[in-house]
């Protein structure tokens, strides 16, 4: 992940779609990815991190990217990433702080618990 994050830091990077399905991304990998995009806001429109064991710490790292006002993501897929209530709360908080950009969020196959569902439902209001 750190090698890829170096690529993203390049000001000439024009990547719009990123698919890292089922490649064992950890919290540290999510942190490296987020740091790269936060240091050089890119044209990234779609990111698919499905089928990774991101868990709540990894999702919390990705949430900092979503909270960045320069974030250009329109589609974020994190299905089957072992996300629970805590991760859903981090996502909801980030989306509340920067609600205008994301148009599709796929979280299928995770376990949000009642509180996590409620957090995301409030975003619809």
UniProtKB/TrEMBL annotation:
SMART domains: LRR_RI. It comes from the Eukaryota. Keywords: Leucine-rich repeat, Repeat. Pfam families: LRR_6. This is Ribonuclease inhibitor-like. It comes from Cyprinus carpio (Common carp).
């Amino acid at each position: 992940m750190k090698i890829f994050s170096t690529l993203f830091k390049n000001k000439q990077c024009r990547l719009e779609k990123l698919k890292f399905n089922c490649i064992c991304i950890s919290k540290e990998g999510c942190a490296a990815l987020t740091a790269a995009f936060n240091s050089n806001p890119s044209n990234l429109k779609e990111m698919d991190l499905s089928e990774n064991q991101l868990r709540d710490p990894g999702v919390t790292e990705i949430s900092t990217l979503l909270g960045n006002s320069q974030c250009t993501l329109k589609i974020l897929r994190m299905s089957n990433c072992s996300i629970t209530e805590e991760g859903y709360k981090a996502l909801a908080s980030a989306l509340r702080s920067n609600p205008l950009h994301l148009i599709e969020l796929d979280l299928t196959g995770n376990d949000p618990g009642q509180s996590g569902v409620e957090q995301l439902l409030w975003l619809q209001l």
